[in-house]
């Protein structure tokens, strides 16, 4: 028997009607009761918390991270499934993956329809997540939805309500689940795992700022004034903004604030092509390009670097290592 621990955190898969809308309410045993447990798998449930995932905090995520490590400290555990809300699942999955150094899988899943919905997707997703947790090794943290297996890194929510809710729009999926087994299509590349961070009294503030037509760095500067230790600039195209943002990034670096550069474009890498406020200048001013990671996961990378080191330069080095940041050879202009 494969021994799989299910950690329940809430989300739509644990949601019931509240009179005006749905909200996470059910505990882990109730969530497990909706799914058929595959033959040959023994399930243990950890009720961690039950919240809608937009309400998750860094404290919630770090508590889950520590719980995952505590569960895997038991050599008799074969894998973990985390039931989670879909809105911030991509952020939690990436945080877990950045600190995961174990051949046993951690699989996140959830639902787009509440637990009592007819023909809901939760039971099937949970079944497939259990199959995956019992059937793979050395793939890191995974996201399983709608019969598909995705690497945590790069996978984001791409559909607001459709069952096929997740994808990495810059890479292929890791595998498929069907007929009670997992077919692995590729092995994701992952950097060395970060050490488990301490639980801070107060999590470092990391803000997102998006560039757009007529955009200026007012909100970027407001984030600095609010005490942000990290800022993710969500730029246009391959990572482009304006000269005013270049000045703001340089000021942030002088203050020891960690700045990451991503793009609002759904697919493709951040690339140093353009000047006059483009990625060439932003990177020269101190922004760290995030490759194909998008805003939510870029923020998690910054957060992890902040939690891992006390000084600004070491944090930059860690962020580069986590991201594999840098120019993309052979990139072509595309703005």
UniProtKB/TrEMBL annotation:
Q: Where is the L-asparaginase N-terminal domain?
A: 3-185
Q: What class of enzyme is it?
A: hydrolase
Signal peptide (UniProt feature, chain positions): none
GO MF assignments: asparaginase activity
Identify the Pfam families for this entry: Asparaginase (PF00710), Asparaginase_C (PF17763)
Give the Enzyme Commission number. 3.5.1.1
Task: Spell out the SMART domains in the cross-references.
Answer: Asparaginase (SM00870)
- Report the residue ranges that make up the Asparaginase/glutaminase C-terminal domain in this protein: 205-318
Active-site residue numbers: 12, 86
Name the family. Belongs to the asparaginase 1 family.
Q: What is this protein called?
A: asparaginase
């Amino acid at each position: 028997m494969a021994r799989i621990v299910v950690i329940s955190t809430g989300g739509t898969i644990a949601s019931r009607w509240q009179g005006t809308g749905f909200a996470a309410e059910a505990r882990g045993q109730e969530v497990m009761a909706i799914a058929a447990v595959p033959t040959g798998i023994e399930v243990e449930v950890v009720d961690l918390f039950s919240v809608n995932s937009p309400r998750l905090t860094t404290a919630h995520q770090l508590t889950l991270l520590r719980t995952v490590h505590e569960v895997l400290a038991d050599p008799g555990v074969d894998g973990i499934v985390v039931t989670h809300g879909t809105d911030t699942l991509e952020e939690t999955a990436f945080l877990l993956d950045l600190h995961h150094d174990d051949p046993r899988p951690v699989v996140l899943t959830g639902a787009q329809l509440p637990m009592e919905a007819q023909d809901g997707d939760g039971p099937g997703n949970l079944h497939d997540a259990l199959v995956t947790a019992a059937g793979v090794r050395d793939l890191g943290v995974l996201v399983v939805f709608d019969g598909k297996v995705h690497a945590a890194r790069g996978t984001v929510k791409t559909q607001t309500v459709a069952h096929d809710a997740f994808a990495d729009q810059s890479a292929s999926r890791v595998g498929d689940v069907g007929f009670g087994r997992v077919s692995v299509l590729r092995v994701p590349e992952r950097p060395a795992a970060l050490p488990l961070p301490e639980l801070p009294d107060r999590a470092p503030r990391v803000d997102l700022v998006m560039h757009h037509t007529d955009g200026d760095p007012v909100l970027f500067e407001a984030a600095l004034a609010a005490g942000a230790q990290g800022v993710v600039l969500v730029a246009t195209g391959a990572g482009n903004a304006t000269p005013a943002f270049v000045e703001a990034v340089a000021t942030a670096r002088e203050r020891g604030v960690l700045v990451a550069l991503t793009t609002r474009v759904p697919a493709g890498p951040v690339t140093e092509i353009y000047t006059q406020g483009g990625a060439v200048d932003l990177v020269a001013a101190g922004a760290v390009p995030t490759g194909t990671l998008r805003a939510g996961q870029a923020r998690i990378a910054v957060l992890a670097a902040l939690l891992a080191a006390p000084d600004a330069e070491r944090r930059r080095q860690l962020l580069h290592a986590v991201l594999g940041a840098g120019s993309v050879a052979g990139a072509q202009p595309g703005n």
